[in-house]
Amino acid sequence: AQIDKAGHKHFMSKEIFEQPTVLAECLTHYSAGERVALPEGALDFAETDRLILVACGTAHYACSVAKYWFEQLAGLPCDVDIASEFRYREPPVSDRATALFVSQSGETADTLAALRYAQGKAARIVSVVNVPESSIARESDLALPILAGIEVGVASTKAFMNQLGVLANLAILAARQRGRIDAAREAELLETLRGLPGLINQALALEERIHKRTGKLAEARSVLFFGRGAMFPLALEGALKLKEISYIHAEGYASGELKHGPIALVDKTVPVIVMAPRDALFDKTVSNMQEVLAREGRVWLITDAEGAEIAGDGVWQTLVMPRIDPIFAPMLYAVPAQLIAYHTALHKGTDVDQPRNLAKSVTVE
Ligand code: G6P
Protein backbone atom coordinates (compact mmCIF):
# COMPACT_ATOMS: atom_id res chain seq x y z
CA ALA A 1 0.00 0.00 0.00
CA GLN A 2 1.09 3.53 -0.79
CA ILE A 3 1.99 5.35 2.40
CA ASP A 4 2.06 9.09 2.68
CA LYS A 5 2.96 11.63 5.32
CA ALA A 6 -0.67 12.16 6.34
CA GLY A 7 -0.27 15.92 6.48
CA HIS A 8 3.04 15.84 8.35
CA LYS A 9 6.15 17.51 7.03
CA HIS A 10 8.20 14.35 7.50
CA PHE A 11 7.60 10.65 7.99
CA MET A 12 9.45 10.93 11.26
CA SER A 13 6.87 13.37 12.60
CA LYS A 14 4.00 11.22 11.35
CA GLU A 15 5.54 8.18 13.01
CA ILE A 16 6.12 9.98 16.31
CA PHE A 17 2.45 10.98 16.36
CA GLU A 18 1.28 7.46 15.48
CA GLN A 19 2.74 6.13 18.70
CA PRO A 20 -0.37 6.29 20.91
CA THR A 21 -2.32 4.31 18.31
CA VAL A 22 0.27 1.70 17.42
CA LEU A 23 1.28 1.19 21.03
CA ALA A 24 -2.34 0.68 22.06
CA GLU A 25 -2.72 -1.95 19.31
CA CYS A 26 0.46 -3.70 20.41
CA LEU A 27 -0.60 -3.75 24.06
CA THR A 28 -4.02 -5.13 23.16
CA HIS A 29 -2.37 -7.88 21.14
CA TYR A 30 -0.12 -9.00 23.99
CA SER A 31 -2.55 -8.96 26.86
CA ALA A 32 -5.95 -10.37 27.62
CA GLY A 33 -7.58 -8.32 30.34
CA GLU A 34 -5.49 -8.68 33.45
CA ARG A 35 -2.90 -11.10 32.08
CA VAL A 36 -0.14 -11.10 29.51
CA ALA A 37 -1.35 -13.32 26.68
CA LEU A 38 1.04 -15.39 24.62
CA PRO A 39 0.22 -18.69 22.93
CA GLU A 40 0.29 -21.50 25.51
CA GLY A 41 3.82 -22.84 25.96
CA ALA A 42 5.34 -20.23 23.64
CA LEU A 43 7.84 -19.08 26.25
CA ASP A 44 8.86 -20.47 29.60
CA PHE A 45 10.96 -18.02 31.57
CA ALA A 46 10.88 -20.26 34.65
CA GLU A 47 13.05 -22.81 32.85
CA THR A 48 15.61 -20.35 31.57
CA ASP A 49 18.66 -19.28 33.55
CA ARG A 50 19.65 -16.27 31.47
CA LEU A 51 18.21 -13.96 28.90
CA ILE A 52 20.55 -12.76 26.17
CA LEU A 53 19.31 -9.71 24.30
CA VAL A 54 21.06 -8.79 21.06
CA ALA A 55 20.42 -5.96 18.60
CA CYS A 56 21.88 -2.91 16.83
CA GLY A 57 21.19 0.82 17.07
CA THR A 58 17.90 1.92 18.55
CA ALA A 59 16.77 -1.69 18.99
CA HIS A 60 19.84 -2.22 21.16
CA TYR A 61 18.73 0.62 23.42
CA ALA A 62 15.27 -0.95 23.67
CA CYS A 63 17.02 -4.11 24.88
CA SER A 64 19.05 -2.07 27.36
CA VAL A 65 15.88 -0.58 28.85
CA ALA A 66 14.30 -4.05 29.00
CA LYS A 67 17.24 -5.41 30.98
CA TYR A 68 16.11 -3.26 33.92
CA TRP A 69 12.61 -4.71 33.63
CA PHE A 70 13.64 -8.36 33.34
CA GLU A 71 16.05 -8.08 36.24
CA GLN A 72 13.88 -5.94 38.53
CA LEU A 73 10.49 -7.46 37.86
CA ALA A 74 11.44 -11.06 37.09
CA GLY A 75 14.83 -11.53 38.77
CA LEU A 76 16.08 -12.94 35.49
CA PRO A 77 19.79 -12.31 34.79
CA CYS A 78 20.11 -10.50 31.54
CA ASP A 79 22.95 -9.78 29.12
CA VAL A 80 22.57 -7.10 26.50
CA ASP A 81 24.89 -7.12 23.54
CA ILE A 82 25.52 -5.20 20.37
CA ALA A 83 25.13 -7.75 17.57
CA SER A 84 28.46 -6.98 15.90
CA GLU A 85 30.26 -7.59 19.22
CA PHE A 86 28.28 -10.67 20.19
CA ARG A 87 28.83 -12.53 16.94
CA TYR A 88 32.61 -12.28 16.97
CA ARG A 89 33.32 -12.51 20.68
CA GLU A 90 32.33 -16.16 20.77
CA PRO A 91 30.46 -15.78 24.05
CA PRO A 92 29.50 -18.99 25.86
CA VAL A 93 25.74 -19.57 25.53
CA SER A 94 24.18 -21.95 28.01
CA ASP A 95 21.68 -24.48 26.71
CA ARG A 96 19.23 -23.10 29.25
CA ALA A 97 19.56 -19.56 27.96
CA THR A 98 16.90 -17.76 25.98
CA ALA A 99 18.38 -15.66 23.19
CA LEU A 100 16.25 -12.76 22.06
CA PHE A 101 16.95 -10.65 18.96
CA VAL A 102 15.28 -7.31 18.42
CA SER A 103 15.16 -5.76 14.96
CA GLN A 104 12.75 -3.40 13.25
CA SER A 105 13.63 -4.62 9.75
CA GLY A 106 14.45 -8.18 10.69
CA GLU A 107 17.24 -7.99 8.10
CA THR A 108 20.16 -6.34 9.90
CA ALA A 109 23.19 -8.39 8.88
CA ASP A 110 24.95 -8.39 12.24
CA THR A 111 21.79 -9.25 14.17
CA LEU A 112 21.00 -12.10 11.80
CA ALA A 113 24.56 -13.43 12.12
CA ALA A 114 24.33 -13.19 15.90
CA LEU A 115 21.08 -15.17 15.79
CA ARG A 116 22.75 -17.87 13.70
CA TYR A 117 25.61 -18.01 16.19
CA ALA A 118 23.14 -18.69 19.02
CA GLN A 119 21.24 -21.33 17.05
CA GLY A 120 21.98 -24.79 18.38
CA LYS A 121 23.43 -23.28 21.58
CA ALA A 122 20.59 -21.43 23.35
CA ALA A 123 17.49 -23.33 24.42
CA ARG A 124 15.29 -20.99 22.48
CA ILE A 125 15.69 -18.32 19.81
CA VAL A 126 13.12 -15.58 20.03
CA SER A 127 12.84 -12.46 17.91
CA VAL A 128 10.96 -9.21 18.28
CA VAL A 129 10.50 -7.74 14.80
CA ASN A 130 8.41 -5.29 12.86
CA VAL A 131 8.56 -7.23 9.59
CA PRO A 132 7.05 -10.67 10.18
CA GLU A 133 8.29 -12.16 6.92
CA SER A 134 11.89 -11.08 7.53
CA SER A 135 14.93 -13.37 7.74
CA ILE A 136 15.31 -12.87 11.50
CA ALA A 137 11.65 -13.75 12.08
CA ARG A 138 11.84 -16.82 9.83
CA GLU A 139 14.95 -18.22 11.51
CA SER A 140 13.62 -17.86 15.07
CA ASP A 141 11.80 -20.49 17.11
CA LEU A 142 9.34 -17.80 18.05
CA ALA A 143 8.89 -14.44 16.26
CA LEU A 144 6.92 -11.79 18.07
CA PRO A 145 5.61 -8.91 15.92
CA ILE A 146 5.72 -5.39 17.29
CA LEU A 147 2.82 -4.29 15.07
CA ALA A 148 4.14 -0.76 14.53
CA GLY A 149 3.23 -0.64 10.84
CA ILE A 150 5.71 0.40 8.16
CA GLU A 151 8.37 2.76 9.49
CA VAL A 152 9.88 5.00 6.83
CA GLY A 153 11.96 7.55 8.77
CA VAL A 154 15.54 6.36 9.08
CA ALA A 155 15.59 7.43 12.72
CA SER A 156 13.46 4.82 14.45
CA THR A 157 10.65 6.11 16.69
CA LYS A 158 7.43 4.13 16.75
CA ALA A 159 9.33 0.86 16.30
CA PHE A 160 11.35 1.69 19.44
CA MET A 161 8.12 2.39 21.32
CA ASN A 162 6.53 -0.88 20.28
CA GLN A 163 9.70 -2.88 20.88
CA LEU A 164 9.46 -1.60 24.44
CA GLY A 165 5.76 -2.49 24.50
CA VAL A 166 6.48 -6.12 23.61
CA LEU A 167 9.50 -6.36 25.92
CA ALA A 168 7.50 -4.92 28.83
CA ASN A 169 4.89 -7.60 28.34
CA LEU A 170 7.57 -10.30 28.19
CA ALA A 171 9.13 -9.00 31.41
CA ILE A 172 5.75 -9.13 33.15
CA LEU A 173 5.19 -12.65 31.83
CA ALA A 174 8.65 -13.65 33.07
CA ALA A 175 7.89 -12.15 36.48
CA ARG A 176 4.70 -14.21 36.75
CA GLN A 177 6.30 -17.44 35.51
CA ARG A 178 9.17 -17.01 37.95
CA GLY A 179 6.81 -16.41 40.85
CA ARG A 180 7.90 -12.80 41.39
CA ILE A 181 4.50 -11.14 41.06
CA ASP A 182 0.96 -12.15 41.91
CA ALA A 183 -2.13 -11.69 39.76
CA ALA A 184 -2.95 -8.34 41.34
CA ARG A 185 0.51 -6.92 40.56
CA GLU A 186 0.33 -8.27 37.01
CA ALA A 187 -3.02 -6.56 36.51
CA GLU A 188 -1.61 -3.34 37.96
CA LEU A 189 1.45 -3.36 35.68
CA LEU A 190 -0.74 -3.98 32.64
CA GLU A 191 -3.02 -1.17 33.74
CA THR A 192 -0.02 1.17 33.88
CA LEU A 193 0.97 0.12 30.37
CA ARG A 194 -2.56 0.65 29.09
CA GLY A 195 -2.44 4.19 30.48
CA LEU A 196 0.62 4.99 28.37
CA PRO A 197 -1.03 5.88 25.04
CA GLY A 198 -3.05 8.59 26.84
CA LEU A 199 0.05 9.93 28.58
CA ILE A 200 1.98 9.85 25.30
CA ASN A 201 -0.75 12.02 23.80
CA GLN A 202 -0.20 14.51 26.61
CA ALA A 203 3.53 14.47 25.95
CA LEU A 204 2.91 15.04 22.22
CA ALA A 205 0.97 18.16 23.16
CA LEU A 206 4.29 19.63 24.37
CA GLU A 207 5.50 19.83 20.77
CA GLU A 208 5.05 23.60 20.35
CA ARG A 209 6.97 24.24 23.55
CA ILE A 210 9.74 21.88 22.49
CA HIS A 211 9.95 23.59 19.10
CA LYS A 212 10.54 26.98 20.73
CA ARG A 213 13.08 25.66 23.17
CA THR A 214 15.16 23.69 20.68
CA GLY A 215 16.14 26.87 18.82
CA LYS A 216 19.06 27.28 21.22
CA LEU A 217 19.92 23.61 21.10
CA ALA A 218 20.39 23.86 17.35
CA GLU A 219 23.30 26.25 17.97
CA ALA A 220 25.12 23.88 20.31
CA ARG A 221 28.20 21.98 19.18
CA SER A 222 27.67 19.26 21.73
CA VAL A 223 24.79 18.10 23.92
CA LEU A 224 24.83 15.74 26.89
CA PHE A 225 21.93 13.53 27.97
CA PHE A 226 21.78 12.12 31.49
CA GLY A 227 19.55 9.47 33.03
CA ARG A 228 19.65 6.94 35.84
CA GLY A 229 18.29 3.40 36.03
CA ALA A 230 16.11 2.50 33.06
CA MET A 231 16.34 6.16 32.04
CA PHE A 232 20.06 5.71 31.35
CA PRO A 233 19.57 3.75 28.11
CA LEU A 234 16.93 6.28 27.18
CA ALA A 235 19.58 9.00 27.57
CA LEU A 236 21.68 7.00 25.10
CA GLU A 237 18.74 6.80 22.72
CA GLY A 238 18.07 10.55 23.05
CA ALA A 239 21.69 11.27 22.15
CA LEU A 240 21.54 8.85 19.21
CA LYS A 241 18.37 10.44 17.81
CA LEU A 242 19.88 13.92 18.07
CA LYS A 243 23.14 13.04 16.35
CA GLU A 244 21.41 10.99 13.64
CA ILE A 245 19.21 13.76 12.33
CA SER A 246 20.70 17.08 13.52
CA TYR A 247 24.40 16.11 13.21
CA ILE A 248 25.09 17.68 16.58
CA HIS A 249 27.52 15.71 18.66
CA ALA A 250 25.61 14.19 21.57
CA GLU A 251 26.43 11.73 24.29
CA GLY A 252 24.26 9.86 26.73
CA TYR A 253 25.58 9.12 30.19
CA ALA A 254 24.48 7.44 33.39
CA SER A 255 23.99 10.34 35.81
CA GLY A 256 26.24 8.69 38.39
CA GLU A 257 29.13 8.67 35.90
CA LEU A 258 29.14 12.43 35.59
CA LYS A 259 32.13 12.88 37.86
CA HIS A 260 34.07 10.16 36.05
CA GLY A 261 34.55 12.17 32.91
CA PRO A 262 31.75 14.14 31.31
CA ILE A 263 31.82 16.87 33.96
CA ALA A 264 35.07 17.95 32.29
CA LEU A 265 33.04 18.92 29.21
CA VAL A 266 30.57 21.09 31.07
CA ASP A 267 30.59 24.84 30.56
CA LYS A 268 27.94 27.32 29.55
CA THR A 269 28.00 26.30 25.92
CA VAL A 270 27.06 22.66 26.53
CA PRO A 271 23.37 21.96 27.04
CA VAL A 272 22.77 19.11 29.47
CA ILE A 273 19.44 17.34 29.15
CA VAL A 274 18.52 15.55 32.37
CA MET A 275 15.70 13.04 32.00
CA ALA A 276 14.51 12.41 35.51
CA PRO A 277 11.01 11.34 36.46
CA ARG A 278 10.44 11.53 40.19
CA ASP A 279 11.59 8.07 41.29
CA ALA A 280 13.55 6.47 44.12
CA LEU A 281 16.84 7.83 42.73
CA PHE A 282 15.59 11.31 41.94
CA ASP A 283 17.49 13.00 44.78
CA LYS A 284 20.75 11.47 43.59
CA THR A 285 20.11 12.72 40.07
CA VAL A 286 19.37 16.18 41.43
CA SER A 287 22.66 16.28 43.27
CA ASN A 288 24.46 15.29 40.04
CA MET A 289 22.57 18.08 38.33
CA GLN A 290 23.73 20.57 40.97
CA GLU A 291 27.32 19.76 40.05
CA VAL A 292 26.53 20.71 36.47
CA LEU A 293 24.84 23.93 37.56
CA ALA A 294 27.80 24.82 39.76
CA ARG A 295 29.92 24.77 36.59
CA GLU A 296 27.51 27.02 34.74
CA GLY A 297 26.13 24.12 32.70
CA ARG A 298 22.83 24.82 30.95
CA VAL A 299 20.50 22.18 32.32
CA TRP A 300 17.28 21.25 30.57
CA LEU A 301 15.40 19.24 33.17
CA ILE A 302 12.70 16.90 31.91
CA THR A 303 10.64 15.68 34.84
CA ASP A 304 7.12 15.64 36.25
CA ALA A 305 5.42 18.46 38.15
CA GLU A 306 6.67 17.23 41.50
CA GLY A 307 10.22 16.93 40.20
CA ALA A 308 10.10 20.42 38.71
CA GLU A 309 8.85 21.80 42.01
CA ILE A 310 11.71 20.21 43.94
CA ALA A 311 14.57 20.74 41.51
CA GLY A 312 13.50 23.34 38.97
CA ASP A 313 15.31 26.28 40.58
CA GLY A 314 18.34 27.57 38.75
CA VAL A 315 18.04 25.34 35.71
CA TRP A 316 18.04 26.73 32.19
CA GLN A 317 14.60 25.30 31.44
CA THR A 318 12.22 22.56 32.53
CA LEU A 319 9.82 20.44 30.54
CA VAL A 320 7.01 19.16 32.73
CA MET A 321 5.83 15.66 31.84
CA PRO A 322 2.77 13.79 33.00
CA ARG A 323 3.29 11.63 36.07
CA ILE A 324 3.89 7.92 35.45
CA ASP A 325 4.96 4.84 37.39
CA PRO A 326 8.77 5.21 37.06
CA ILE A 327 9.20 1.63 35.86
CA PHE A 328 7.71 2.45 32.45
CA ALA A 329 8.90 6.06 32.32
CA PRO A 330 11.40 5.33 29.52
CA MET A 331 8.47 4.72 27.16
CA LEU A 332 6.86 8.06 27.98
CA TYR A 333 10.12 10.03 28.04
CA ALA A 334 11.04 8.62 24.64
CA VAL A 335 8.55 11.12 23.22
CA PRO A 336 10.33 14.34 24.31
CA ALA A 337 13.65 12.70 23.33
CA GLN A 338 12.29 12.17 19.81
CA LEU A 339 10.68 15.59 19.59
CA ILE A 340 13.85 17.31 20.78
CA ALA A 341 15.84 15.61 18.03
CA TYR A 342 13.17 16.30 15.43
CA HIS A 343 12.73 19.98 16.23
CA THR A 344 16.43 20.63 16.58
CA ALA A 345 16.80 19.17 13.09
CA LEU A 346 13.96 21.39 11.83
CA HIS A 347 15.77 24.46 13.17
CA LYS A 348 18.92 23.30 11.42
CA GLY A 349 17.11 22.41 8.21
CA THR A 350 18.66 18.98 7.86
CA ASP A 351 17.11 16.13 5.87
CA VAL A 352 15.16 14.47 8.67
CA ASP A 353 13.86 11.40 6.88
CA GLN A 354 17.04 10.69 4.92
CA PRO A 355 19.97 11.75 7.12
CA ARG A 356 23.33 11.71 5.41
CA ASN A 357 25.33 8.48 5.46
CA LEU A 358 22.61 6.48 7.21
CA ALA A 359 20.39 3.69 5.92
CA LYS A 360 17.10 2.42 7.28
CA SER A 361 18.20 -1.18 7.11
CA VAL A 362 21.82 -2.26 7.21
CA THR A 363 22.04 -5.58 5.40
CA VAL A 364 25.79 -5.51 4.86
CA GLU A 365 28.46 -5.65 7.52
C1 G6P B 1 20.03 1.28 11.23
C2 G6P B 1 18.86 2.24 11.39
C3 G6P B 1 18.47 2.37 12.86
C4 G6P B 1 18.20 1.01 13.46
C5 G6P B 1 19.36 0.04 13.23
C6 G6P B 1 18.96 -1.40 13.57
O1 G6P B 1 21.16 1.85 11.78
O2 G6P B 1 19.20 3.49 10.85
O3 G6P B 1 17.32 3.18 12.98
O4 G6P B 1 17.97 1.16 14.83
O5 G6P B 1 19.76 0.02 11.87
O6 G6P B 1 17.99 -1.81 12.63
P1 G6P B 1 16.96 -2.95 12.88
O7 G6P B 1 16.14 -3.02 11.62
O8 G6P B 1 17.74 -4.22 13.11
O9 G6P B 1 16.15 -2.59 14.07
UniProtKB/TrEMBL annotation:
It is found in: Cytoplasm. Residues 41-180, 213-355 form the SIS domain. It comes from the Bacteria. Its EC number is 2.6.1.16. Signal peptide: none annotated. Keywords: Aminotransferase, Cytoplasm, Glutamine amidotransferase, Repeat, Transferase. The active site is at K360 (for fru-6p isomerization activity). It catalyses: D-fructose 6-phosphate + L-glutamine = D-glucosamine 6-phosphate + L-glutamate. Homodimer. Catalyzes the first step in hexosamine metabolism, converting fructose-6P into glucosamine-6P using glutamine as a nitrogen source. This is Glutamine--fructose-6-phosphate aminotransferase [isomerizing]. It comes from [Roseibacterium] beibuensis. The gene is glmS.
